Amino acid sequence: MSSLRVGPAVSLRGCIRVPGDKSISHRALLLAALAEGTSRIEGFLPSHDCLATLRCLEALGVEVTFQEPTTVTVHGRGLHGFDPPREPLDCARSGTTMRLLTGVLAAQPFRSVLTGDPGLNRRPMERVAEPLRRMGADVQTADGHAPLTIQGPKNSRGRLHGIVHRLQVPSAQVKSALLLAGLYADGPTTVVEPAPARDHTERLLRWQGVDLRVEGPAVTVYPPARLPPFSLRIPGDFSSAAFLLVAALLVPGSEVTVTGVGVNPTRTGLLDVLRAMGAEVRVSYDSASGPEPVGAVIARASQLSGVEISGDTVVRMIDEFPILAVAATQAHGRTVVRDAAELRVKESDRIAALVEELRRLGARIDPLPDGFVVYGPSSLHGGILDSHGDHRLAMTLAIAGLVADGAVTVQGAERIQDSFPGFVPLLEEIGVDDVEWSDAAGGSDRLADGP
Predict the structure, then answer these.
(1) Smallest Cα–Cα separation from 290: which of 220, 239, 230?
(2) pLDDT for res 154
(3) Of the listed 319, 386, 390, 418, which one is catalytic?
């Protein structure tokens, strides 16, 4: 087990770039694998989660080569070119890998098994399995969880059926799985969302020329004859940038600019909330050159006030609630989060884990069934904390160390590599001097580089 020690910071300054977007990296790999021909992806995120997707695709016969550390070439096999896997496909800790691959494998004429680490195998999978069964696939779960056993349709035409499915809980992963399965259907497939989840899959499919239509909450895909290859530059991950932007807001005298970052409006709910709290944060948009909006985000140290968050905004910032909670500990007044019960079935129970660890630092935070309440401002103290095997919680607690009165040590910090390789070097780049990474063998280094 690795640990990360972060001490109080004085002032943060810099203009930086964060690694490529994790959500887009997963989807770009999958769609390039389903294309007929060779695709080139720049800005690919070589995190543990994305590499799990890559390894699963290789086990299905897809050739993926690295031209540079973050540039990959994918030799697509077409919609019907995958090889049957010789053994269960290991999704490691990646829910995105498991759920999106389930959608694709549900249309294949062979049996496959998806499994993962114990934490992933505890996450709910019936929400994706049930609609795929309605489409004609045989998807078996282990009491609603992984391992998943998947067999494509056995009807005379060997095709899935197009359906209309209403999501009970907003989920970009389930939506994407059904849209990917819809590429193989005998007619249109429609997913109706209760709130607009991230739309990277839709944007990429349109980028490939697929007939995909959005009418209010309904997203409909019409099955194409083929998918063409593409060239794509993936923008920086807003969810990664969020840690550094919040750090700049909280440490007095700071100003940090993150360039080349994705600013898709289905992902930037945090910016709206921070502005409502009084944060000085702005976006400078780049000229459009791909399926995603990109820009620079500038954050300057600000006095914050508490707010209440619920409804559609929750979906647009579901991954940013841990770092928002740290911001709320330094805000004046009460910050209330509701309608975020999905946080309880992430890599950890993020509500319970967040409350437990921030209380150890002296924060006044109470759990709710579907969120939490933070009373600020609080003086945070140093301490030894647990990541609970959750990459976002590990980075959140590290940022808390910047505004505590003593160093914070996060145990289980190796999970940071699931989404943000290079997190520690970027902290140093913006002026964090008191930071030390210790590996599982007991050695230490000032920096922790990505894979």
Answers:
(1) 230
(2) 79
(3) 319
